[in-house]
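# step 3/5: fold
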Amino acid sequence: MSNALHSATLVAQATTSPAVPAAAAAAPAAAAAAPAAQQAASTVGAAAQQAAGAVQQSADALQGAAAALPSALPVAPAPAAVPDMGFMHFIAQSDFVGKSLFIILILMSLVTWYLILVKVASNVSMRKRSADFLNKFWNASSLEQVENEIVTHGARDPFSHLASHAMHAQAHHNKFGATKLEEAGSNTDFVTRTMRKVIDEETAKLENGLTVLASVGSTAPFVGLFGTVWGVYHALVGIGLSDGVTINRIAGPVGEALIMTGLGLAVAIPAVLAYNTFVRNNRVYLSRLDAFAHDLFAFLTTGQQVALSDGKVRALRRQNGHGAAAQRGSE
């Protein structure tokens, strides 16, 4: 047992004894390498600091360049202020002449629409009353019944007005004769003149207001055009006195001035359309009234309702009635 322990001790000593001199020999080499490593580390740190400083300088340079860039670029001119434009602005900036023309066009428009509404209502009512009277007239059994109808309800339309005056003229001439110059001639002459006078009066009533419509329709565009010319003139004067000339300064005032032309057309178009419509309706209505006058004249001169052509009725009137009626009776 003691021999075994002694052998193990010897083996351990033999194993460890060579490592001790090697470690002792490596210690001075490690000590010599430590300053070199420390110097390398300090060199790397200095390089890192220099790199960080360079990066900071680059960042500062970029910030300076970014700050100087807006001032280096050309500055675009600020857009010119758009002036106020519109119809009310044009009226507000107009002088006495421009406002006067505007007021004239407004008055023309008011008068036009007043006449249109009044004449439409009057024509509708007149045609309705005329249709009622004609229905009663042609369904009456005698002139006395027609006269009683007129006395009861009055002469409210051109047809009843014509019949009333014609029957009154015939009765008056038969009773009193030709006592005045206006009653000179035969009974048929007096009745003819009376009926023609009534037709002329009714024609004048129907045409009442049409002259105004025609005048408005023909003059309103020129009034608006004059307002446009006046506005353009003042706009060009203002542009000439201004410092700079741009499309906004030209287009705005000129466009506002053109409003007067549009306003003149807006006033004239309804007037012209209404005038043409009323003239045509009056022509148709008066032709019916004239045809009724022919029938009424033949009825008064013969004493009975007859059916005559327009040509025969005109011949009857030219021949003073009685002779033509007798001639037709002989036929």
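# step 4/5: annotate
The first helix runs from residue 2 to 16.
# step 5/5: archive (pending)
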